[in-house]
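Feature request disguised as a bug report, sorry. It would help if multi-protein outputs had a clear separator. Right now it looks like this:
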Amino acid sequence: MHHMTFSAPPNSAPPLCVVACELVCGDRSQAIAAASALYLMHAASFTHEHLPFTDRPKPKPKPTVHSGYGPDFELLIPDAMVPFGYYELLAMSDDPAQDTSGRVLRVMVELTRAMGSQGIIDGEYQDGKMY
């Protein structure tokens, strides 16, 4: 999972998450958990898009995600990244001194929408219809 997470190119959503939190006087440590979840989900999507056994044209001439673990693991690892992102968010709400459960739930709902049929999945479906 480590290899595929850090094989994905950087993206601006995680830093924007931290900056937006700081802009509204939020706690940076809580924003880091949300930013980490965002990046994990970006990496999972990127990995699925660049699996070596898909027929879709590759945006780069050389493979970026091949890990050498075989296609079974290359397909399953990104599927494990998404729940790990949710775990990072839930771990953020473990501190009993801070009542963050409502905010964590709202972030999870928005991430689920962004990853689901109204977001990344729909985009992947639309891309797949072209090929």
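(second protein starts here, but nothing in the output says so)
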Amino acid sequence: MKVATIQNVFAVIKGSEEPDRHVLLGNHRDAWTYGAVDPSSGTAALLDIARSTEWVEQNLINLGSKAVAYLNVDCAVQGPGFFVGSTPQLDNLILEVMKKVKDPDSEGVSLYENWAAGGGGNNVMFLSLLVKCL
């Protein structure tokens, strides 16, 4: 095994509303297995999102003070079901719709009820900093 330095990539697209705040998109690039779903589908999604942006310097201070959301796309495409993991306060519209839609994979349970049960993921470190995650 060879130890090597790898690079992280950061890009910025300034928004028209709250341009001093940040929405973060993230994905890991390593996989325990072949990785077609996790992380390769997320890598493909991020590359497509980032292809029109310029490379910028990393700014760790701004991440903590300006980040308003982190979108985790390491499993951007996976199976026939509906999967979402988030903090409940992120988007009231999504929450209300999910409360009204029955989960096709769990009889008598709404999408919201299964979603609210939560679980671990790459967003846990952002949750620990109280950054809303979807």
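Even a blank line would do. Unrelated, but nice: The longest strand covers residues 67-72.
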